[in-house]
Amino acid sequence: MGTEVDPDHPGATDTLSVGRPQRAARAEEIGRTLRAQGIRGVVLSYVDTAGITRIKTVPVSRLARSAAWGVGMSTVFDIFLSDDSLTSTADLGSPDGDLRLVPDLDRLVALAAQPGWAWAPVDRYRQSGEVWPACQRSFARSMVARAAAAGLDLQMAFEIEWALGRGDSDGFVPACTGPAYGMTRLVELSDYARDVLAALEDEGVEVDQLHPEYSDGQYEVSAAAAAPVLAADRSVLVRQTIRALSRRHGLRPSFAPVVVAGHVGNGGHVHLSPWRNGRNLLAGGPGPIGMTAQGESFAAGILAALPALLAVGAPSVASYLRLVPSHWAGVFACWGHETRETALRFVTGNAGTADRAANLEVKCLDLAANPYLLVGALIAAGLHGVRAGLTLPEPVTGDPARYSAAELAALGIARLPTSLEDATAAFEGDAVLREAMGDMLADAVIAVRRAEADRLRGASPEEVVDALRWVY
Ligand code: GLU
Ligand code: MG
């Protein structure tokens, strides 16, 4: 298969032409199976810079053509905001031009809560066939490849928290009233919770657990660990499935960082572990609590990047209403062994299982994040730690909130950024993340964060929460 040079972008590679006939043939075959299952349409999704999942759909008859050539979509979604208005960067914001959305056939599944529909995440390309430089899913994949080139594999898992409201209110009226973690809350929504488990199983999503969480009407599903891009795909799929299923039950889920001002919010904690040659680098080593030297450096890279990572993983104005001390959201830039108030929690699991179970839980993240951007940024930060041979400070025990400002300073524990503006400033100063993302993507992140902050500047917590409760 030949690749052609695009006159507008000399040096660009027409990656999309590689394997085109095979993709088309495979999609034809998949289309036949889908039709036999009564499926009529395929949802093609990507997540924009602001964290909103955007879609196009095609009839099953058009799947093969979409897989071969992609479906058109404007470039402006990279600078779309959560209220559907636009900002711009030097590269982005023009009404000119078009991109191709190409479904990843390996990830295509029938949507259990939307009969007649299948879903696949897309990668985005220029019309010339070059990977679009601001394609977040391609960025995640390129960071996985970079890790592989350094001999590292990553395992990742997303925790998905949501507050379940009644479907008949624009405000939030919790769909259940039983206590946090309570059996009563499950009894109240027994059929719903069973349907969530069944739907995710039908979609091939491995679930570690489902439980009622702390906040009003709140539930959580933890997806099992998987390769990073798969984990990010599942974060999208799980939320869309919960959304559709909730609606079928007359309910409405909110994945927003905060659903009721002043209450505990929805986290989107990410668990991750670096592996080399089938061995978990967070176990069986001479470093802190059994980490290997490289495992420690990977963790230290993430710890060092946390202020900048917040602009990726806590990208909403509402994120900073969630990030308050003593809410298990992890607002201090420190780490601890199983400590739920440190931004980085080192989890080792049952005695004797650390070689499989040991992982880093990054707690300060939420579900407004674009999971692809987040996965890629976490890998970039960890790889930088390995390259630079970073080491961890002493672990912290207990809640750092009990210390005075002077004590925190003496212990070297900083509070993470407390506003989207401050997180964005930290991101702007982070050369590692910019190099990894490339200028087009990094500039889009900065522009979108600034515009989101501008849009809600001066709004009360209640106004912020009302504006963002149902968008993520
Ligand atoms: N809901 C908490 C948060 O905002 C997390 C609770 C937990 O540790 O699972 O991050
Ligand atoms: Mg939780």
Which small molecules are bound?
glutamic acid, magnesium ion
Shape, principal axes of CA atoms:
globular
Using the coordinates shown, work out and report the CATH topology of the largest domain: Creatine Kinase, Chain A, domain 2
Strand fraction band?
15-25%
Named at the architecture level, the CATH assignment of the largest domain is 2-Layer Sandwich
**CATH class of the largest domain, anyone?**
Alpha Beta
Annotation, overall tally of beta strands: 16
Structural class by sheet pairing and helices: alpha+beta
CA-atom Rg in angstroms: 22 Å
> How would you characterize the largest beta sheet?
10 strands, mixed
Total count of domains: 2
CA distance, first residue to last residue:
41 Å
Can you say what the CATH homologous superfamily of the largest domain is?
Glutamine synthetase/guanido kinase, catalytic domain
State the share of residues found in helices, binned by percent.
25-40%
Look at the structure and give the mean pLDDT: 95
Q: Tally the helices: what do you get?
A: 15
User: Low-confidence parts, pLDDT < 50 over ≥5 residues?
Assistant: none
